[in-house]
Write a structure and sequence with these properties.
49% helix; single chain; Rossmann fold; RNA-binding; 12 strands; three-stranded antiparallel beta sheet; mainly alpha; three-stranded parallel beta sheet
RNA sequence: GGCGGUAUCGUCUAGGGGACUAGGACACGGCCCUCUCAAGGCUGGAACACGGGUUCGAAUCCCGUUACCGCUACCA
């Protein structure tokens, strides 16, 4: 059983960005630790120097931080533990659970090819384990290079997986695997076990592509005299075509979603639901609720398919939940990038921005959509959408009457708010006999005020625009209408 | 090939022997609300991979088959 204070770790290899599958694995590790009062640690598996990069390490940290998956102790770099890995291999050599193998890579490749040609499965034949002590010593003295191989014992290896239940392997199906290379560097399975023991990891939660590594690792724990952790193997994430999620499916890095205008809380919520369900038909959750409701027994065994549409819906739900402050904080960089002003300028109009965001977020699924919709309110000049103009300003005489009339009823207002502008426009509607057809009145106005056929309610637009700009836009529209006048078809 | 894993609507899932004419959500269609677009409400179509058992009774348990996925390196 898991001890009372569980320790878990997320152990990515820094060979790319933080993949959504990795992010979900990290998320479940984190949830488990938070739920049961344990620790969540981070270990960078950078033993593969050729493929590991600093940049990738940084990208992974950033992705985790963006999601809010804070780790509790300094990051462990696997590459720094080489001496311990080596010492552990020596320990196994000394206690007889491993042996030296002098077969070269070429010989092995040859035998493997021969076996395959004969239609048989290749498995190391243990020839070096049969060398007598004298011969081994002679070869070592002669400086012959060797690897260290683990001697897999008879019998079977099984464990009670937290998500799959009991999984068992026959040891005869596991070959004597190499644990230390000729150059004295460790193979993955040794490095992982050695580090997990050193970090006192009690729950190893990882992708189910590691299931077949697990019996080997269990043997290693035993050979090193260490207590076994609890294993939990999480399913993978697939793309819409049911294949393993890859670049072909579009964005796979969590950073991509950040730039698409997804909220971290929505991303977390969505990822959590991909492979776990709290039950009771609960779907939208804050991070606190997720921790509260998390239960490893609800972990899914089956690979899930990443559905962008649902992520977007989820984001819309979270947009509705977050505070104006948080929304502004998350949207600010995108607002600046869109050219709406400097961060200082935008923050100076904080209250106004709050009210604008409040109007736009309900009609948006992502921050990017909010930014796009915000253009007519931040920019001095608006672009008239040609399609909207064509459709809504079709009747030029009526449009002119509406614009002129709006200017007339709006100008004398002493108060400029939702109720006063509504009253004024109602008056205009009556005058133009459009009370029964409000769309005929409001749509042309909407185009004049925002340049678009879609916007928040017209009175809200008037208020957020402010009297001055609203009037300027109506006048500009009138002008534009006259310029375009001589266009009889 | 060998070994391992998985199998409920298109997708995410609820379900853990009778409460199932299988529930919810996304997506899709319709209706309502409505100045547009959203949001919201209501509503429709849509699934237990197949075959055998066990049982009075199976989506739920067991065994096969099939399909898909993973591993099978001196990669991680």
């Amino acid at each position: 059983m898991a001890p009372s204070v569980p320790r878990l770790r997320f152990a990515p290899s820094p060979t790319g960005y933080l993949h959504v599958g990795g992010a979900r694995t990290a998320l479940f590790n984190w949830l488990y630790a938070r739920k049961f009062g344990g620790q969540f640690l981070l270990r960078v598996e950078d033993t593969d120097k050729a493929r590991s990069t600093e940049e990738s390490t940084r990208a992974i940290f950033e992705g985790l931080q963006w999601l809010g998956l804070e780790w509790d102790e300094p990051v462990v770099h696997q590459g720094a533990n080489l001496e311990r890995h080596r010492a552990d291999a020596q320990r196994m050599l000394a206690n007889g659970t491993a042996y030296r193998c002098f077969c070269t890579q070429e010989e092995l490749a040859q035998r493997r090819a021969a076996a395959e040609a004969a239609g048989a499965a290749f498995k190391y034949d243990r020839r070096c384990d049969r060398l007598d002590r004298v011969e081994v010593e002679r070869r070592v003295a002669a400086g012959m290079p060797f690897t260290v191989r683990f001697r897999v014992p008879e019998g079977s290896t099984s464990w009670d997986d937290l998500v799959h239940g009991t999984i068992a392997f026959l040891n005869k199906d596991i070959e004597d695997f190499i644990v230390l290379r000729t150059d004295g560097t460790p193979i993955y399975n040794l490095a992982v076990v050695s580090d997990d023991i050193a970090m006192a990891i009690t729950v190893v939660m990882r992708g189910d592509d590691h299931i077949s590594n697990t019996p080997k690792q269990i043997q290693l724990y035993r050979a090193l005299g260490a207590e076994l952790p609890v294993f939990a193997h999480l399913p993978m994430i697939h793309g819409m075509d049911g294949k393993k999620l890859s670049k072909r499916h579009g964005a796979t890095a969590v950073g991509d979603y950040q730039h698409l205008g997804i909220l971290p809380s929505a991303m977390m919520n969505f990822l959590a639901l991909l492979g776990w369900a709290p039950g009771n038909d609960i779907e939208v959750m804050s991070r606190e609720q997720m921790i509260e409701l998390f239960d490893p027994s609800g972990l899914q065994k089956r690979a899930a398919i990443f559905d962008l549409k649902k992520l977007e819906w989820m984001n819309g739900q979270h947009l509705a939940l977050i505070s104006p402050d948080e929304l502004l904080q998350r949207a600010l960089p995108a607002l600046v990038a869109a050219g709406y002003g400097s961060a200082e300028e935008i923050m100076a109009r904080r209250e106004w921005v709050f009210s604008l965001l409040e109007l736009l977020k309900v009609r948006s699924r992502t921050i990017d959509e909010i930014v796009w919709q915000a253009a007519p309110y931040f920019n001095e000049q608006i672009e008239l959408d040609a399609e909207a103009v064509r459709k809504q300003w079709k009747d030029r005489a009526l449009t002119e009457a509406i614009l002129r009339g709006a200017l007339e009823v709006l100008s004398p207002l002493t108060e400029w708010n939702l109720t006063s502008t509504e009253a004024a426009l109602n008056q205009l509607a009556a005058r133009l006999d459009l009370v029964e057809k409000p769309g005929k009145l409001y749509q042309p106005l909407r185009v004049a005020l925002t340049g678009r056929a879609v916007s928040p309610g017209i009175f809200e637009v008037l208020v957020v625009l402010g009297r001055k700009r609203a009037q300027q836009r109506l006048e500009a529209a009138l002008l534009r209408l006259r310029q375009d006048e001589p266009t009889p078809d």
